[in-house]
Write a structure and sequence with these properties.
Layout lengths: L10 E3 L15 E2 L1 H6 L10 E2 L2 E2 L12 H17 L2 H5 L2 H10 L3 E2 L2 H6 L8 E3 L3 E7 L7 E10 L2 E12 L7 E8 L2 E11 L3 E11 L6 E3 L3 E3 L2 E3 L1 E7 L12 E2 L2 E2 L2 E7 L12 E8 L4 E3 L2 H22 E2 L4 E2 L6 H14 L3 H14 L4 H19 L2
Parallel strand pairs: 14-21
Antiparallel strand pairs: 1-11, 2-5, 3-4, 6-7, 7-8, 8-9, 10-11, 11-12, 12-13, 12-16, 14-15, 17-18, 19-20, 20-21, 22-23
Helix pairs in contact: 6-7, 7-8, 7-9, 8-9
């Protein structure tokens, strides 16, 4: 499944952001201490073209742009001088209550509901690990940058979660959960969105380096296709479905088991079709593993080998494609990119590598291959 950047998407090692995933919390209250600690979060100095931010996670290799990295490092220093020990000591929900209410006291009903609209809660997390949602990127409404900030000693480490996110709707799309286990601290970054047919939730898992504080994507989920840093879910907009036990995190801890759901996109003329497909994931101490993993993964590898053999055999260097039945888009785009590179078709190679970067985002090894193929195709186009 490709990334749904045009919907509400965010994932950090968190709970799934579906409204049924967790019980309702009591409305936050703005205390005098929280109001004193409240800091307006400065905008990063990313370059703009009119109202379009040039640093964008939706661009191929956009997060690796040297100018973006330099501006992000400068922003890290800005935040280190701004976010005080007092700010870290106040619960994020209290800071948000003060940002909305503007004075000590409880939020009104409308103010509480406003935290589920627009950019949503702009500070989330713990006293050590927090997510910042910095809205109006390049003064464009609905565009935002998401960062993970980790307190280390007297400073902080800043990891970009998303450059220039286009939420495309009114509902708050972002969520963050932080979990510490014997093997380290994880952050789950979750985004939620919808179109006319389905509601989508995407969760990306990160592991935080204990020494540096920086976070890297971590393969927390073992799906039928193998280890993945990302778990996508969907269910129909219309219908009464009992989608239970969806939370990955509860009370700051990983659950023992959760259910994942996928919209099956049933047609009206197919009464035997199951509208929603359910899968169960179980925690084994290091990762969440889908039920019957060994059998399902073995079958996936068998079909993938057959697909790759067909693509290799039927690849047409003139067209840059192969006439084969495709079940796994990620590997297919990578294979076509590589075959086009070898044939000297650098434009085709780049196009297929761009698609692979999208479809392989949760697959660590294939995503690394997509990055390599994209760089090589770009280099080939430059040296023509």
């Amino acid at each position: 499944m490709g990334r749904i950047s045009y919907l509400f998407r965010i994932t950090l090692l968190l709970v799934l952001a579906a409204p049924y995933a967790q019980p309702q919390e009591k409305p936050p209250v703005c205390s005098a201490a929280a109001l004193a600690a409240l800091k307006p979060i400065a905008q990063p100095s990313f370059a703009c073209d009119n109202s379009t931010q040039l640093c964008s996670s939706d661009k191929p290799m956009g997060a690796d742009d040297p100018q973006c990295k330099s501006a992000t490092k400068a922003y890290e220093k800005t935040l280190a001088g701004m976010l005080t020990a007092q700010w870290w000591s106040v619960p994020a929900r209290s800071l948000e209550a003060c940002r909305v209410h503007g004075k000590p006291g409880p939020l009104t009903k409308d103010e509480t509901e406003s935290l589920d609209q627009g950019y949503g809660a702009q500070v989330q997390g713990t006293d050590r690990v927090r997510m910042l949602v910095v809205g109006d990127a390049c003064q464009a409404a609905g565009m935002s940058n998401e960062f993970l900030v980790v307190r280390i000693g007297k400073g902080l480490a800043l990891t970009v979660l998303y450059y220039d996110f286009n939420q495309g709707g009114q509902e708050a799309p972002f969520g963050l959960d932080v979990v510490t286990t014997d093997s380290g601290t994880f952050a789950l970054f979750t985004t939620q969105g919808h179109d006319m047919q389905s509601i989508y939730t995407s969760t990306t898992s990160y592991k935080i380096d204990a020494k540096t504080g920086y976070a890297t994507a971590y393969p927390l989920f073992f799906t039928a296709t193998g280890p993945s840093t990302q778990l996508d879910q969907s269910n129909p907009v219309v219908g009464d479905f009992n989608l239970t036990d969806t939370a990955i995190v509860r009370d700051g801890k990983f659950v023992k088991r959760f259910n994942s759901y996928q919209d099956n996109s049933c047609g009206q003329d197919d009464p035997k079709c199951t509208p929603v497909i359910a899968e169960s994931y179980t925690w084994n101490g290091n990762s969440f593993v889908v039920s019957d993993y060994e059998t399902r993964h073995k079958e996936f590898l068998r079909k993938l080998a057959s697909q790759r053999e067909c693509v290799k055999k039927k690849f047409d260097p003139k067209k840059g494609t192969a006439d084969c039945a495709i079940q796994s888009e990620c590997e297919n785009y990578n294979d076509l990119a590589w075959l086009n590179l070898k044939a000297g078709n650098f434009n085709n190679a780049r196009n297929h590598a761009e698609m692979a970067l999208d479809f392989c985002h949760g697959n660590p090894s294939e995503y690394e291959a997509a990055q390599y193929n994209y760089r090589q195709s770009q280099q080939g186009l430059k040296t023509r």
